[in-house]
Amino acid sequence: MRIGIIGAGQLGRMLALAGYPLGQRFVFVDVDEDAPGAQVGRIIRGRFDSPAALAALAASVDVVTFDVENVPQSAAQAVAAKVPFYPPPEALGAGQDRLDEKHLFRSLGIPTAPFAPVDSQQALVEAAESLGLPAILKTRRLGYDGRGQVRLDTLGDLHDAFAALGGVPAILEGLVRFDRELSLIGVRGLDGATAFWPLAENVHVNGMLRQTRAPWDDAGLQADAERHVLALLERFDYVGVLTVEFFCVEGALLANEMAPRVHNSGHWTIEGAVTSQFENHVRAILGLPLGSTKATGHAGMVNFIGQLPPLADALAVEGAHYHDYGKTARPGRKLGHCTVVRDKAVERDAALTHLMSLSR
Ligand code: AMP
Question: Second label for 51, Cα 20 to 30 Å away, from 17, 182, 268, 307?
Answer without folding.
Answer: 17
